[in-house]
Design brief:
Blueprint lengths: L1 H9 L6 E5 L7 H6 L1 H18 L3 E5 L6 H20 L3 E4 L8
Parallel strand pairs: 1-2, 2-3
């Protein structure tokens, strides 16, 4: 993180994101995405994290939802997070597996 912050000072166009999930770190995304109350708590906290850390947005990296229900829950999470982040002038990116369909 410290190196990214230094690089950002050198290159003012560099964007830094917090990544949620990723290889071996996505096991709790299903429970977060499937519960509207958890999403309502998570999303403002992500925005607060961006503000405190002065980063430009959030990257979601849940490449392998296991069921159709998880997939639909993930879409809800992305839609709600995207709306809230964009209203706060923050960015949302998504890492996709080559066979993933959103």
């Amino acid at each position: 993180y410290a190196k990214a912050r230094v690089a950002q000072k050198v290159n003012g166009n560099l964007r830094v994101f917090a990544s949620i999930g990723g290889a071996g770190r996505s096991q709790h995304l299903a429970s977060l995405a499937s519960d509207p109350q958890r999403r309502k708590i998570l999303i403002p906290n992500l925005i607060q994290l961006c503000r405190i850390e002065q980063i430009q947005g959030i990257d979601f990296d849940w490449e392998q939802p296991q069921t159709q229900e998880e997939f639909v829950s993930y879409l809800h999470l992305l839609f709600e997070a995207g709306q809230a982040l964009h209203k706060s002038n923050l960015l949302l990116t998504v890492a996709l597996h080559p066979n993933q369909r959103l």
